[in-house]
Amino acid sequence: MCVRDALELEAKQAGVKIINSVSVDQIKKKQHFQIHCKENKNIYTADRVILACGSKASQISGSDGSGYTLAKMLGHNISSVVPALMALRSDEKYFKKLAGIRTGATVQLYIDGRLIDQDTGELQFTDYGISGIPVFQVSRYASKALLQKKKVSVLLDLVPSMSNDDFAAEMTRRKEQYAHRTAEECFNSILPAKLIPVLLNLCGIDKKLWAVKVPEDKWNQMIKICKGFRVNVTETNGFEKAQICAGGVRTTEVDSHTMESKLVKGLYLTGELLDIDGICGGYNLHFAWATGTLAGTSAAEEE
Ligand SMILES: Cc1cc2nc3c(=O)[nH]c(=O)nc-3n(C[C@H](O)[C@H](O)[C@H](O)COP(=O)(O)OP(=O)(O)OC[C@H]3O[C@@H](n4cnc5c(N)ncnc54)[C@H](O)[C@@H]3O)c2cc1C
Fold it and tell me: Which residues approach ligand 1 with their CB closer than 6 A?
């Protein structure tokens, strides 16, 4: 039995009537709420309504952003909604060669040259940019900044387990001691194999050149790029590929003790519809459950 089955069973036992496969396209409040359904054209009346429509990220859950329209109809204000917890896109051509690489990295997000957020974990390269949990974690800031036409970039530390000094010392040692290794071979076991030729090429180093013959300045440039590989972000992966949205119904318009609207008596708002978003780690589901429980309990208690 899945969680939904358990909830459905409990609701049925409590005498709840469940109406599936209809979408609400209008809610009006006169003396009571009037809830208009698109498909069956029915109008339901209610004393209390809980809006738990989610956001407009990834429509697999059925959420298409219509919750924002319903909240607006009832007088609520919506902070700009942007996709979050998703991959970031770049127009650099070399990503086609990097697609499929997974490697540990620290991802630092810069907006207009200022460090805003960072995370360390498994970075994934795709043919259009970067993905993986550490990218998801910083993506909400990128999304908001891109909406405001700000300059967004990430700095990737591709050898996060070593300090800058230790890494530089190790690569200098390899260059000096491995007389019969190519530049490419010197970076084996440090970086994923597919990544090495791309980075060497960006530094103007022939991958087949003996490491000892690589000019000092180019070798140092390669060391630097491994610890700080700058990627300009041009776009996010959009609402359809996002796990959540940042933005939504303004939290100042909702009583956090009950989740009741401060503008419309008897209206409750929960979950992702609200202007609250969390990083990966179960926080968004937790917030949806917690506010749903609070709204349900409060709505049932009200006189
Ligand atoms: C691929 C993916 C992976 C995720 N992984 C995680 C994770 O690991 N951990 C985590 O914490 N969060 C995760 N999330 C985010 C999490 O699922 C959401 O934050 C959470 O489900 C939001 O709950 P909600 O009840 O507010 O909205 P939703 O779960 O979106 O539910 C809203 C419901 O309202 C219905 N609805 C919407 N509009 C209308 C309308 N007009 N009329 C009738 N019905 C309507 C929808 O059909 C839907 O059933 C993930 C999301 C995605 C897409």
Answer: 23-24, 52-54, 57-58, 60-63, 66-67, 243-244, 271-273, 282-285, 288
